[in-house]
């Protein structure tokens, strides 16, 4: 798994975010796709024994073990309960096909390799479609387009799309649309026109499965101040799906990833097989995300068409309830404690590259401040407690202020109060500054070399003690949030730092002869572990994982105009 707390990963990801923002603003590749084919891909005459099967996975391409384990399940038929399921005629990937940043080598090693090993070839190659997530956008979609937009192969799967979005016409009144929302919200003009053209092809009663790259409904805390990502998604549903089809089509199911766990939210007022479910299924291979912070209910803002009066009383907020999460909340909460193992220098080994230099710089500035008052340091020893004031300089204060400001911003971005970040910074400063002053008070006749000795020792203090403060800060802040009813505080950092490879999953779908849609959520509580070598053409197994289990099951009624039978070609 990617070491998300490693400085090189964090710095490189930050650089990619900046560059990708420039690509998105000034060289949006989606606008160059307008001249490509605008036809929907037709599978409405495809069936096997009357049933049509397809699969969905998202957030793959992080750790090899987890990515390969899910790819191997996707590559084969499975017996799920009393049902013998078939490998999907289609595989839809829901975003973030590679981590931590997009480039050709990362796609080859973290995505193509495990999928090619799982399904080297197929007599009838299943088709592969993908939408990009934010990590795919980090190189402006260059690598994504090369992998998915040139109608090549990924192992035994065949890619077919030319754009970063697509529309699939499935059998018996069903559609699957995959939209490209860039970095959260923006849907470009050519893409909107593409889907409006597809919507006009919908027959009365058709039902649409929408795949998007972010679960924007999760982040709505106040319906009156919804995030832009939700506004864009709601606008797309109302203006493109409903209005664009002349109200012939309905949104039956929304699929997404981005958060690396499973959750399903349903309208509070619903029928057992009704429409409107919103599913997050980001368990295709990336590090596990927590579930114990997910709200039990969400109120989604009202949606109003562009030509509807503002005071239209028919557009009301919709209450949604959480029905299923995986892993369970108690298991997720228990796994959070695993971050404490990173107090050991054997975990996230490169963390010292940040902590050590920061502590050394604090020590060097402290020693320089003392030497300005006592050139030989001997007077500092005689001054005793007076050294506490001598050890403060304007440069030291500037460094402390910058550190506090940076960690305050980090805390707020992680959902925690900014003051927690300030306390975090002060804990590091007090340890580094106190250790330096204590070392300078040791009566050694070394002149200014005493300052260098103190700097070297405090460097080691930062590597060991700074790591302890950093990890304890993450743990204590997260636990404080849980106790206050704010379990999101640093939840992502606590789990990303651990890089948990287990609790991975994918979705298998069936459209039966009557047009009814069935979804199985298939998971591995523990994924197998492999050696980095092949044995008989497959990765060499070290530790077997658990058997795949169905942890969620959902049926959706057939489109009202779907025929009860359909010829099988």
Brief digest:
The protein is of the alpha/beta class and about 575 residues long. About 35% of the residues lie in helices and about 20% in strands. The two termini are about 45 Å apart.
Describe the structure.
With 569 residues, the protein is an alpha/beta fold. Helices cover 36% and strands 19% of the residues. It has 14 helices and 21 strands. It has helices at residues 7-26, 64-74, 104-118, 142-148, 189-199, 228-242, 329-336, 352-373, 378-383, 387-390, 394-413, 418-440, 449-483, 491-496; strands at 41-42, 52-57, 78-80, 83-85, 90-93, 127-130, 153-154, 157-159, 166-169, 174-178, 207-211, 250-256, 262-267, 277-281, 297-300, 318-326, 504-511, 517-524, 529-535, 538-543, 549-556. The strands form four sheets. A nine-stranded mixed β-sheet has the order 1-9-10-11-12-14-13-16-15, with helices on one face. The protein has an eight-stranded mixed β-sheet with strand order 7-8-6-5-2-17-18-21. Strand 10 (174-178), helix 5 (189-199) and strand 11 form a beta-alpha-beta unit. Helix 2 (64-74) crosses helix 3 (104-118) and helix 12 runs antiparallel to helix 13 (449-483). The longest helix has 35 residues, at 449-483. The chain is elongated, with a radius of gyration of 27 Å. Mean pLDDT is 85; it is low at 308-314 and 562-569.
């Amino acid at each position: 798994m990617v070491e998300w707390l490693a400085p090189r990963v964090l710095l490189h990801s930050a650089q990619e975010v900046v560059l990708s923002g420039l690509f998105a603003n000034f060289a949006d590749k989606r606008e160059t796709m307008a001249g490509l084919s605008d036809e929907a891909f037709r599978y409405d005459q495809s069936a096997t024994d009357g049933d049509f099967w397809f699969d969905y996975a998202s957030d793959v391409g992080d750790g090899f073990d987890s990515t390969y384990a899910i790819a191997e399940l996707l590559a084969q038929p499975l017996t799920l309960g009393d049902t013998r399921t078939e490998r999907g005629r289609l595989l839809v990937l829901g975003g973030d096909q590679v981590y931590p940043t997009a480039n050709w080598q990362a796609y080859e090693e973290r995505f193509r390799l495990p999928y090619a090993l799982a399904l080297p070839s197929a007599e009838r190659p299943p088709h592969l479609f993908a939408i990009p997530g934010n990590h795919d956008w980090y190189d402006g979609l260059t690598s994504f387009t090369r992998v998915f937009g040139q109608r090549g192969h990924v192992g035994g799967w065949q890619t077919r799309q030319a754009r970063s979005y697509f529309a699939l016409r499935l059998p018996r009144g069903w559609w699957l649309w995959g939209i490209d929302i860039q970095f959260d919200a923006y849907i470009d003009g050519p893409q909107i026109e593409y889907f409006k053209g597809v919507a006009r092809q919908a027959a009365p009663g058709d039902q649409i499965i929408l795949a998007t790259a972010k679960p924007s409904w999760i982040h709505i805390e106040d319906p009156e101040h919804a995030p832009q990502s939700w506004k864009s998604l709601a606008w797309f549903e109302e203006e493109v799906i409903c209005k664009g089809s002349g109200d012939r089509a309905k949104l039956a199911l929304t699929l997404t990833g981005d958060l690396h766990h499973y959750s399903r939210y349903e309208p509070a007022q619903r029928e057992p097989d009704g429409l409107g479910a919103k599913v997050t299924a980001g368990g295709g291979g990336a590090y596990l995300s927590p579930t114990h912070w997910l709200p039990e209910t969400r109120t989604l803002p009202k949606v109003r068409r562009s030509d509807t009066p503002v005071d239209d009383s028919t557009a009301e907020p919709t209450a949604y309830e959480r029905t299923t999460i995986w892993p369970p909340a108690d298991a997720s909460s228990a796994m959070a404690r695993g971050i404490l193992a990173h107090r050991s220098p054997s975990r996230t080994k490169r963390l010292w590259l940040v902590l050590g230099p920061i502590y050394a710089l604090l020590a060097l500035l402290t020693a320089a401040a003392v030497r300005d008052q006592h050139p030989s340091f001997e007077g500092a020893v005689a001054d005793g407690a007076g050294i506490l004031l001598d050890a403060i300089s304007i440069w030291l204060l500037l460094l402390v202020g910058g550190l506090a400001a940076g960690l305050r911003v980090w805390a707020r971005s992680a959902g925690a109060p900014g003051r927690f970040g300030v306390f975090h910074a002060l804990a590091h400063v007090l340890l580094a500054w106190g250790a330096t002053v204590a070392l300078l008070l040791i009566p050694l006749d070394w002149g200014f070399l005493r300052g260098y000795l103190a700097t070297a020792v405090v460097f080691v203090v930062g590597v060991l003690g700074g790591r302890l403060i950093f990890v304890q800060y993450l743990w204590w802040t997260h636990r404080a949030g849980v106790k206050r009813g704010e379990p999101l505080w640093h939840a992502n950092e606590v789990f990303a730092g651990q890089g948990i490879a287990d609790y991975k999953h994918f979705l298998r779908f069936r459209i039966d002869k009557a047009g009814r849609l069935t979804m199985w959520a298939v998971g591995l509580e523990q994924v197998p572990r492999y050696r980095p070598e092949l044995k008989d053409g497959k990765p060499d197994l070290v530790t077997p994982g658990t058997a795949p289990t169905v942890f969620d099951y959902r049926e959706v009624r057939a489109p009202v105009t779907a025929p009860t039978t359909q010829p099988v070609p």
